[in-house]
Amino acid sequence: MLRWLPVRQRVTYKVAQLTHKVRTTATATYLSDLVQTHAPPQALRSSDAPLLVIPRIHTKLASRAFSVAAPSTWNSLPADIRLCKNILTFKCHLKTHLFRLT
Fold first, then answer.
1. Assigned domain for 36 exists
2. Which of 16, 32, 50, 53 is the most buried (most CB within 10 A)?
3. Does residue 2 carry a pLDDT above 70?
4. How far apart are CA 102 and CA 99, in angstroms?
């Protein structure tokens, strides 16, 4: 049986996948410059699964920029998915998570 994600989850899947690639490999330096890891002032339990800094925006249109959409999508994922190092494992867990949301 062929299972396709709805359009909204498909966009989330693509943005999360690209963000994972940017964070784990140094291939797209122009994109890696747009996402920054959040460094909390104190050591917290949530520091194990690093979050990304979401820049402040003033318009609805600006929320579509990669520098805003990537951290927002990444931070919305569960910690166990964000901690995946292997791209294939990440994709599998991400797709399962998105299917559970629908």
1. no
2. 16
3. no
4. 5
